[in-house]
């Protein structure tokens, strides 16, 4: 092993962080896409409601 056991732990933590970041971005993007499609009339209007 080039990095040893500490390097493996660091790489695992970095991979987990990358996965969580990607999931967060996908969730936010999906919500924005649903909102925009609803606002433009392609999805039910209930999806474009915003709490104020």
Protein topology:
Elements: H1 4-39
In words, what does this structure look like?
It is a single chain. The protein is mainly α. It has a domain at about 20-50. The protein has one helix at about 5-40. The radius of gyration is 19 Å and the shape is rod-shaped. The mean pLDDT is about 95.
Q: How many strand segments?
A: 0
- Total of DSSP H or I helical runs spanning 4+ residues: 1
Shape: rod-shaped
Helix content: 55-70%
Mean pLDDT: 94
Gyration radius (Cα, Å) is 19 Å
The secondary-structure element order is H
Terminal CA distance reads 55 Å
Which runs of at least 5 residues are low in confidence (pLDDT < 50)?
Answer: none
Largest sheet: none
User: Could you tell me the strand content as a percent range?
Assistant: under 5%
Describe the structure in brief.
With 52 residues, this protein is mostly helical. The chain has a domain at 20-52.
Task: Give a quick set of tags describing it.
52 residues; mainly alpha; 1 helix; 69% helix; rod-shaped
């Amino acid at each position: 092993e080039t990095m040893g056991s500490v390097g493996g732990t660091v790489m695992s933590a970095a991979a987990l962080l990358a996965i969580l970041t990607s999931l967060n971005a996908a969730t936010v993007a999906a919500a924005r896409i649903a909102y925009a499609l609803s606002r433009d009339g392609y999805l039910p209007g209930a999806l474009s409601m915003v709490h104020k």
